[in-house]
Amino acid sequence: MAYIIDTNSLIDASIKWYNPAVFKSLWPKLSNCNDIFLTEQVCNEIKSPDILVKWVDSFNKQRIIKVDQQAVNEYRNVINRIVKLKYWTESGISQWTASPTKADPWLIAMAIVHNCTIVTMDGITNRIGQSRKIRGLPNKNSPSSVEPKIAPVANLFGIETITIYELLVKLKFTF
Known about the structure:
Blueprint (H helix, E strand, L loop, with lengths): L1 E4 L1 H11 L8 H7 L3 E4 H6 L4 H9 L5 E2 L3 H17 L4 H8 L5 H12 L1 E4 L4 E2 L7 E2 L15 H7 L4 E2 L1 H7 L5
Parallel strand pairs: 1-2, 1-4, 2-3, 4-7
Antiparallel strand pairs: 5-6
Helix pairs in contact: 5-7
């Protein structure tokens, strides 16, 4: 199975849960795992912390997925579908479309093209003692002005989403 990691998972992991200064063996394992990929948009969104920027810069360039025509076509499909669904207002959708470098819709498009699971916390609730849940879509009768969340939109396209912790378990990483 192939996995594409979202920006928020990398930033949160490096700041909140798996600080590279403490979890020194984790980050090389992620870099060296042939099942883990990044998109060029995610790489470009990582501006801090410095240690994560360095990690992204050293990430195997062969496993950074670049935009191609298939990805462009799927990106258009993703955007067209969320517009047609009317779960989000124009201002909510524009948070995904205002910048062509916004990673979220590209992440979904690339996951479709490359048959990958997306590693993200965006749209996943995971409270201690509770089951993991993907947030539902907004109410059509009251469309959301907040940007779409990766997990429920990916779910619309049959793309699996997992958290970074679930990724570590699936890959059987130990420290």
